[in-house]
Amino acid sequence: VLRSRRVKSYDTIIIGGGIVGLALARELRARDAKRTIAVLDKEPALGRHASGRNSGVLHSGIYYPPASLKGRLCNEGARLMRAYCEEHGLPVAPTGKLIVPSREGEDAQLDSLLERARANGAQAEIVGEREIAELEPEAHSASGRALFSPNTCVVDPKAVMSHLGASLRDSGVDILLGCEFRVADDDTLLAGDQRLAYGTVINAAGLHADRVAQLFGCGLQYTILPFKGLYYQLDPNAPIKIRRLIYPVPDLRVPFLGVHFTVSTTGNVYAGPTAIPALGRENYRGTEGISPRDLTSIGATIVRQYASNKQGFRTLVHEEGRRFIKRYFADAARALVPRLKTEYLVPCTKVGIRAQLFDREKQELVMDFLVERGERSLHVLNAVSPGFTSAFSFARYVLDGLDRAA
Ligand SMILES: Cc1cc2nc3c(=O)[nH]c(=O)nc-3n(C[C@H](O)[C@H](O)[C@H](O)COP(=O)(O)OP(=O)(O)OC[C@H]3O[C@@H](n4cnc5c(N)ncnc54)[C@H](O)[C@@H]3O)c2cc1C
Prior knowledge:
The chain is 32% helix and 25% strand. It is built from ten helices and 23 strands.
């Protein structure tokens, strides 16, 4: 397949320069100063997809089953990422987070979240009405109880990406931008107009990770089902001020957290993101990024899941689909902050798409991070939230696995 050209050779080539690819390059470099490493990204700059478009929340590990990778890696990842930001003078906002029942009957779920938090090593406590009012006067709990996570904080994802990119370059990692991986054979691959020889390939291609894996004969039972996250900004002139993160009690059958409030490191307040099935992997706006191939496969999966209602998919589509309409979006946000008026929410350009993996054999959304190995390749699939938080601990986990297998 590959015509002969001048070949540059690397011990490890990482496809995808999102936070996962960069964290893996950093960990590889920390383990071996001599290894030759290249990170390829098809975009002209780092952070053009999920890693530069997320809420920047360093989750503390509350939601995930203790045996899962998310449960095992999130808390440690948050500690490492926060330390990285503090060490390099990157902004960290110590907001803490309240999880509040937004309707009756969610208290038992709040207690299970507390148990999960404890099992995962995350600091969290149940607080009552008085403490809620002190912690975040705008937050409302339907039951008068909430789960408070004091360590949850917010970083600036774009600042992290650009600092990490620069420090990797300084450590001798080649970051090749505008360089789209297209095809590989046993020891070389074509990316952009370059032919590169590799020892090992690591696939961290986010929204395209399934297709990249499949070119190496891996991940055959999976496909990406993209979910769009739209945000509104709280008008800075609105007569309500929010200083902490406020989240609803999530439906744990699906890997989304529900519309919530986050505060950026500069103090901007956002409501969102939604989790609406997107019609294309990079369908950020209007009809952009929709291909006939994706449309057919995504459409068919949505229709099938809707019909079977597995994992409560029908409820998800109904609730999230309505949130395209501002009035319904505002209703979801108001369930957490009753004084919010619809007009306090102003449109903003912030939008991200989750690279959610769908298992075609089991016909369900994959809930945990997933790593598959090929002969000389390794594939990171389903690096969804808390993927940004967990990037450094995840990189250690992945490379420990590779070292053990070597
Ligand atoms: C709306 C939203 C909010 C989120 N909020 C949070 C949060 O608050 N906290 C948290 O921890 N996580 C959050 N997440 C999840 C987090 O953003 C992701 O887990 C993380 O960014 C995934 O990183 P990645 O490197 O796998 O993917 P990406 O950032 O998507 O990087 C993949 C890269 O691969 C490149 N690529 C793809 N195909 C090719 C190819 N063929 N050749 C070369 N390059 C290619 C792309 O250009 C891209 O840059 C959120 C996600 C979304 C969408």
